Amino acid sequence: MSNETSPCILIADDHPLFRGALRQALTSALPGTKLLEAGSFDEVTKMLAAGSEADLILLDLTMPGVQGLSGLLFLRADYPQVPVMVVSANDDPGVVRRCIEFGALGFMPKTLDADQMAVAVQSVLDGNVWVPAGIDFSGGQDNETAETIKRLMSLTPQQVRVLMMLSEGLLNKQIAYELSVSEATVKAHVSAILQKLDVDSRTQAVILASKIAATGWSPQDPASQQTSAA
User: Fold this and answer.
1) Spatial CB neighbours of 46, under 8 Å, sequence gap ≥ 6
2) Banded model confidence at residue 212, pLDDT cuts 50, 70, 90
3) pLDDT band at residue 90, thresholds of 50, 70 and 90?
4) Other CB atoms closer than 10 Å to residue 220's CB: what's the count?
5) CATH class entry, domain 8-125
6) Where in the chain are the domains?
7) What share of the chain is helix, strand, coil (3-state, %, to 5)?
């Protein structure tokens, strides 16, 4: 952590009203806490790349720049030292379980009151895993799901970003422009993604990712994806 007595928390949510409510709750319950805010996933990555010493990221699952669990997957790959707590209005037990399986150290429903939010955040700052009461983790994963999670988590941060963009239906040249790399580099990333996920096409890779994403990625029509095949 950046400071034992004054933790730095990055609130990543595209709803200003919710960010304000969470900021007020944390300021009141955890005095001295440094709070940063981001309204998109690009803002999150720019802050971290610039050296923001966040002790905890409170990550909304649905915000500009992320699809389902892709933001969590990227952060765990690129910034494994920074704890991530997912914040979501979708508190389905399956969603909570999937977030923890993908490396989140907590899951905070947006329906919690201010005092409960502060308790949840403090628990994760203390090194605990915090989830809502009543979530059953005893069932475990089926073998197929476990293998898919393992394969997705083997992707590098850049490969995760490419997969995110594939799920949005972007062409190789569009991905290259967004990432400031060559089309050849994008093709190499796509090939590596297919190999790691053990699939034969980019469409299959997106479908696989959509199946495992707790909140559901939204892949474009497969026909449009095939026009940009590597």
Assistant:
1) none
2) low
3) confident
4) 14
5) alpha beta
6) 8-125, 143-226
7) 50, 10, 40
Residue 27 has pLDDT above 70, yes or no: yes
Helices (H), 69-179: 70-78, 93-101, 114-125, 143-153, 157-167, 172-179
How many CB atoms sit inside 10 A of residue 208's CB?
A: 19
> What CATH code would you report for 143-226?
1.10.10.10
| Cα torsion angle, 132, 135, 65, 122, sign | positive
> Can you tell me the distance from the alpha carbon of 131 to that of 166, in angstroms, rounded to the nearest whole number?
31
- Least Cα distance to 3 among 28, 32, 39 occurs for 32
Burial 62-100 (b: 16+ CB within 10 A, else e): ebebbbbbbbbbbbbbbbeebbbbbbbeebeeebbbbbb
3-state class (DSSP) for residue 8: strand
- Judge if 8-125 and 143-226 fold alike in CATH terms: no
Beta-carbon contacts of 87 under 8 Å, excluding residues fewer than 6 positions away, are: 13, 22, 58, 59, 60, 61, 108, 109, 110
| CA-closest candidate to residue 59, choices 46, 74, 72, 68 | 72
Say how many residues make up the chain: 230
Cα separation, 192 vs 187, whole angstroms: 9
Question: What is the reported pTM?
Answer: 0.77
